[in-house]
Amino acid sequence: MNAIINANIILEDKVLENHVVIFDEYIRNIIPICEFDKDKYDDINIIDIKGNYLSPGFIDLHIHGASGFDTMDATKEAIDTISKSICKYGTTSFLPTTMTMPKDRIINALENIKAYMKNDFVGAKVIGAHMEGPFINKKHKGAQDSTFIIKPDYEFIKPYLDIIKIITLAPEEDKNFEFIKTLKQNSNIVLSMGHTDTSFETANEAIANGVSYATHTFNAMTGLHHRKPGCVGAILSSDIYAELIADNIHVHRGLYQFFIDSKTNDKVILVTDSIRATCLKKGMYELGGQKIKVDESSARLEDDTLAGSILRLDKAIKNIYNETNLSIYQVIKMVSLNQAKAINVQDQIGSIKKGKKADLVELDKELNVLSTFIEGKKIYGGY
Fold first, then answer.
1. Residue 176 has what DSSP assignment?
2. Residue of 135, 111, 145 whose CA lies nearest to 183
3. Inter-residue long-range contacts of 340-343, CB under 8 Å, 24+ positions, other chains counted
4. Residues 6+ apart with CB under 8 A from 106
5. Are 214 and 196 in contact (CB under 8 A)?
6. Helices 200-209 and 178-186 sit at what angle, rounded to 10 degrees?
């Protein structure tokens, strides 16, 4: 058993002081410091974090790779490396994300994720897969390879209904929304609009039929125009969850406050969309079989198209906190509880609450990650 003391505990609606978090694999209690008597517990380990923040673990619902490896490598080593790398920056759970490539490559990646989920975690936990493509629109393919784009196909993904948590698709490519309707009837998979040329009207029809999420809002979709509100207009005027890549490149920092005010901080999902070059030096890398050039802040195809990111969630938090009027607990919700609710795992993870998994992150006052606990085990940092 462990007890964290002298923490500023980030809850979903406030920062709690002068309390103790008692945990093993699960959070067993949160009690006032005046009620804590260590002699009541056998072999309790006292962890004094000296006034730092204690945050729920971060959850990344859209991440392709890090530290030289990619989900599409389809190996245990790849997922191990990504997992170990991102936990150093506060991520405790994630969805390895596939991309538009040949069917057999996508199947191999999904099979690898399925097998990996049966193993004990070595870093951030794999809690499912995000399938980005191949059911997208060629006009807004971004860094995806148009050669392998296909129409939505239920039989293709049917064997993986148990592990896929999110599918990004272009709803206008789904005739009569048959794929969307079939998925909603047969699974709990979250359907997301992305890489799409949809109109405002079609987007709203898709939402009415089951789309409840948007992939990297503003990027690779029809933009907001006062006579053609497009996909962005549908996202802003609905209550669906919406991803944001807050690296100050994919979206201008001046839009953060507007976007969050429009969606509310209950519906914004901060993601990295990071690629294998994340946590590495600048240079030339690969994404989906295409050459990627990486500098200090971005990753791009040779034609200068943005190709995922090299963002980490801890950096995304800092960017939002520095560029908006949000409090720290409102920002943290956008990397934890919102994600958990979006994929319906909020009873297990996403906030510091009695009975939930002890996925915890210690942050200093500058929001740097000092230590990471996953299911009560120290995976990174001191203590």
1. G
2. 135
3. 340/59, 341/241, 342/61, 342/190, 342/212, 342/213, 342/241, 342/269, 343/61, 343/95, 343/127, 343/128, 343/165, 343/166, 343/190
4. 72, 98, 131, 134
5. no
6. 30
**10 is written with which tokens?**
């980030």
**Which sign, positive or negative, has the C-alpha torsion 193, 196, 200, 205?**
negative
Give the amino acid at 272. T
Domains and CATH numbers, the chain: 2-55+351-381 (2.30.40.10), 57-342 (3.20.20.140)
Per the model's pLDDT, the better-predicted residue between 76 and 283 turns out to be: 76
59, 221, 223, 240 alpha-carbon torsion, rounded to 10°: -40
Mean pLDDT of 339-360: 98
Provide CB contacts within 8 A for 356, sequence distance 6+. 26, 27, 347, 348, 349, 350
**DSSP H helix total and E strand total for the chain:** 10, 24
- Pairwise CA distance, residues 108 & 354, whole Å: 38
pLDDT, one tens digit per residue, over 163-213 is: 999 999 999 999 999 999 999 999 999 999 999 999 999 999 999 999 999
Q: Is the separation of the CB atoms in 364 and 370 below 8 Å?
A: yes
> Which candidate, 317, 319, 297, places its Cα nearest to that of 308?
297
Q: CA-CA distances (angstroms) from residue 25 to 138, 264, 344, 357?
A: 45, 32, 20, 6
DSSP 9-42: EE-SS-EE-SEEEEESSBEEEEEEGGG--GGGST
Q: CA geometry: angle at 130 spanning 125 and 133, to 5°?
A: 155
- pLDDT, tens digit, 9 for 90 and up, residues 229-258: 999 999 999 999 999 999 999 999 999 999
Q: What is the CA radius of gyration of the chain?
A: 20
| CA gap 54, 8 in Å, rounded | 6
Question: Which token pair is 255?
Answer: 């839009």
- Helix, strand, or coil (residue 152): coil
Question: Which of 178, 143, 194 minimizes the C-alpha distance to 308?
Answer: 143
Extract the tokens encoding 305.
Answer: 């198209």
E-only strand ranges, 148-296: 164-169, 190-193, 211-214, 241-244, 268-270, 283-287, 290-294
| Sign of the dihedral defined by the CA atoms of residues 338, 339, 340, 341, in that order | positive
Name the helix (H) or strand (E) containing 154: helix 154-157
Q: Which residues are known catalytic residues?
A: 273
